[in-house]
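Customer escalation, tier 2.

The customer says the design service returned an amino acid string that "doesn't look like it belongs to this structure." They asked us to rerun it and document both sides in this ticket. The original structure tokens are below, unchanged.
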């Protein structure tokens, strides 16, 4: 692959092509999905970031300019360099300085630059600009004359900022002529822009506590002058991390710096948007997959042109164009949804760290349960650790209680899944006018259906996955390919008359709680009940307005919410994710339980948490009960070190899949043999686990095997990947995915 020069930042993307410039210019264009850039000849300078249409093997293709040259970079005289006439869009699609980041991503994830750019940039439509009229600061000498001119001035005075030309039509029939006159006299200014000039209000930061101030000061130290520093802000739930972010953003904005805020889930953005806009006093650009393509394009354009300087979004927001980037915040940095689980398997948090290094600016990673990766980096002094151990104001961390279901007599269960103490606590909470969150981290009604007579379980026809029964739709669904099925009247195997539901889900818990509390107002929050942002927002709005007494939900209820009415959190089954075939199962469970517990008692009334479990001695549960993050982390780190897992070693998961059942195993066996000499050369530094069948052996009719490659450091891992990619040829019918720093183990 052609290496691209790194010093591209000198070309601003707004270099408008100058037609008078008659010299030939050469440019490298990256065309999706091709690996290497193609060189073309242009009639004038076209800056990196512009989209162009180019001739390619007898057809037309679109691509982005990535490098420019004054002389032909291709020294082979036999190669003809084709010409292009002009860029497609008269504006750039990204900032030239973003290219360095895209190139880093391309190298690190071994993905063609064209694919990185394709993932990063939304489809941009030509921007719709409007002409905005505002009163000039210095008015002209000549007085405005006539009713229409005066009426326009009045309208502009009424509008605190500015008006579109059309909105002045009310001033009179001849308003256009009058407007021209006012412009000539210097009374008004007309600017063509994407949106109205921002109505800035005064920032309203909260008064911070001493602990908050200390953390903030450390961050601010890296803003003046701006320097690259990674902070790990470890603050317990409700300690006011968001208030620290807000104060830091306000300061960065005062210094004229752009800011990027990443949150793990789209669902967290609506709550944060209004809180942030109100407090920092300016509008922010949103960037996440819940937006329509035109909304995404609009915000991208606003950020690209520097009209909006604060970008907030989920992982894909890390690619946003931001002028003079000076501060990055990654909230809930531990969350595995920062990792994209298909196509370009990037980790938004990790890219954010690289982006901060490239921009030479500070980055704050915030969490109540930091990932072990970040925690170890802080311990090693790579990151600066900032800690907040108290909740804000008079609010105290919740008290916790564990119900050991192995000892709790069956006869005392109030329903299949609700114990007596949990039921009593719910009752008491509702009676006091407070609210309850019940976490059960699996959706649906029953996780499988089984025949009592012969033990036959219903599976998806296309996946090795048992079907989940959904009562709301009276159907069965595969949670991997989304296919839905009718419930068979008899067992397909032995024709026995009835199949039984086993393994609960949120629908089942909702039903049980409904029977126990027939007069309570109960809602459910999961991916089925909140199919889009609007559903999600309205459910939470009802909780906020106290129209809901009990909210049953999946991990969606554990994240981010700051609802002072919630005083009881019940985890119906702590063990749902605990025994997954994933080396991070304990870490993920600890984080989920601590985050869920953190929703309780954020207002005046103290919070209480009940954990129901069959594994009361598990360290994830013991340490959640003791509010002991470091106890958990130290123990877990020791195990990871002994076993050579992240965060000590790097991990790559290679998944082979095919419609042919034998092919994946054969291919990965061959690969493992191929890697043997590399492993021998690096004894104690490199190991290969497998091949073995993936825990879910078949998805969408493809059989799946996987291999885990563990390397002591990132350079060695990159060497292995390079070696595999250049030496291993696989048949077309085999699909291989390389998941670098894999989070997903199924
Ligand atoms: P975290 O993000 O750490 O879970 P939040 O920033 O959401 O915590 O803070 C929890 C609650 O405490 C919020 O309602 C927030 O407005 C409030 N809060 C935090 N710090 C302050 C402060 N310094 N002054 C006033 N309210 C605060
Ligand atoms: Zn399926």
């Amino acid at each position: 692959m052609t290496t691209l020069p790194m010093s591209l930042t000198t070309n601003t993307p707004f270099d408008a092509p100058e037609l008078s410039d008659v010299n030939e210019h050469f440019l490298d264009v990256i065309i999706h999905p091709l690996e290497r850039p193609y060189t073309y000849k242009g009639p004038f300078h076209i800056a990196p970031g512009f989209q162009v249409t180019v001739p390619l093997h007898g057809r037309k293709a679109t691509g982005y300019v990535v490098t420019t040259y004054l002389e032909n970079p291709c020294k082979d005289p036999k190669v003809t360099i084709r010409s292009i006439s002009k860029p497609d869009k008269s504006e750039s699609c990204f900032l030239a300085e973003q290219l360095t980041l895209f190139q880093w991503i391309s190298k690190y994830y071994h993905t063609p630059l064209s694919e990185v750019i394709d993932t990063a940039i939304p489809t941009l439509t030509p921007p719709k600009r409007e002409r905005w009229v505002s009163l000039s600061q210095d008015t002209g000498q000549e007085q405005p004359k006539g009713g229409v001119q005066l009426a326009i001035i009045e309208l502009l005075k009424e509008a605190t900022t500015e008006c579109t030309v059309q909105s002045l039509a009310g001033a009179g029939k001849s308003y256009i002529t009058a407007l021209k006159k006012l412009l000539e006299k210097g009374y008004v200014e007309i600017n063509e822009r994407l949106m109205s000039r921002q109505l800035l209000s005064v920032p309203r930061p909260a008064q911070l506590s001493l602990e908050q101030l200390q953390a903030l000061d450390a961050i601010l130290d890296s803003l003046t002058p701006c320097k690259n520093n990674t902070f790990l802000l470890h603050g317990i739930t409700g300690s006011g991390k968001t208030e620290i972010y807000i104060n830091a953003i306000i300061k960065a904005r005062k210094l004229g710096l752009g800011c990027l805020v990443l949150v793990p889930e789209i669902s967290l953005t609506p709550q944060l948007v209004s809180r942030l806009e109100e407090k920092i006093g300016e509008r922010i650009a949103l960037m996440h997959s819940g937006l329509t393509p035109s909304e995404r394009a609009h915000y991208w354009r606003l950020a690209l042109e520097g009209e909006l300087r604060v970008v907030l979004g989920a992982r894909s927001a890390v690619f946003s164009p931001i002028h003079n980037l000076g501060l990055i915040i990654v909230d809930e940095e531990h969350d595995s949804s920062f990792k994209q689980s298909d196509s370009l398997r990037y980790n938004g948090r990790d890219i954010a760290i690289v982006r901060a290094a490239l921009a030479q600016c500070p980055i704050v990673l915030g969490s109540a349960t930091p990932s072990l990766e970040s925690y170890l980096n802080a311990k090693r002094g790579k990151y600066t650790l900032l800690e907040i151990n108290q909740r804000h104001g008079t609010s105290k961390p919740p008290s916790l209680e564990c119900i050991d279901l192995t000892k709790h007599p069956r006869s005392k269960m109030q329903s299949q899944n609700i114990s007596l103490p949990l039921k009593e606590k719910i009752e008491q909470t509702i009676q006091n006018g407070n609210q309850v969150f019940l976490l059960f981290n699996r959706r649906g009604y029953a996780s499988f259906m089984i025949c009592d007579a012969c033990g036959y379980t219903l599976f998806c026809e296309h996946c090795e996955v048992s079907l989940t029964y959904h009562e709301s739709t009276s159907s069965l669904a595969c949670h991997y390919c989304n296919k839905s099925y009718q419930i068979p009247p008899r067992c397909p195997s032995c024709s026995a008359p009835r199949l039984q539901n086993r393994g609960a889900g949120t629908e089942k818990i909702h039903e049980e709680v409904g029977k126990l509390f027939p007069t309570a107002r109960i809602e459910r929050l999961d991916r089925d009940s909140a199919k889009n942002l609007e559903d999600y927002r309205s459910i939470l709005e009802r909780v906020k307005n106290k129209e809901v007494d009990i909210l049953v939900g999946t991990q969606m209820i554990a994240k981010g919410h700051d609802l002072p009415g919630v005083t009881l959190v019940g985890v119906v089954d702590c063990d749902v994710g605990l025994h997954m075939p994933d080396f991070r199962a304990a870490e993920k469970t600890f984080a989920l339980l601590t985050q869920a517990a953190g929703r309780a008692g954020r207002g005046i009334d103290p919070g209480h948490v009940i954990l129901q479990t069959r594994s009361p001695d598990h360290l994830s549960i013991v340490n959640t009960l003791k509010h002991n993050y470091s106890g958990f982390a130290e123990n877990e780190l020791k195990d990871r070190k002994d076993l050579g897992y992240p965060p000590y070693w790097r991990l790559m998961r290679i998944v082979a899949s095919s419609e042919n059942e034998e092919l994946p195993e054969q291919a990965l066996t061959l690969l493992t043999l191929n890697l043997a000499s590399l492993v021998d050369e690096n004894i104690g530094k490199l190991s290969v686990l497998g091949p073995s069948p993936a825990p879910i052996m078949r998805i969408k009719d493809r059989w799946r095997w996987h291999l885990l490659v563990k390397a002591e450091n990132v350079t060695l891992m990159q060497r292995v990947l390079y070696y595999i990619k250049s030496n291993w040829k696989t048949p077309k019918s085999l699909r291989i995915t390389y998941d670098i720093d894999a989070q997903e183990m199924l």
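Tier 2 assessment: The sequence is consistent with the input. Residues 1-22 have pLDDT under 50 and may be disordered. Residues 206-209, 212, 235, 237-243, 392, 562, 602 surround adenosine-5'-diphosphate (ligand 1) (CB under 6 Å). Sent an explanation to the customer and offered a walkthrough call.
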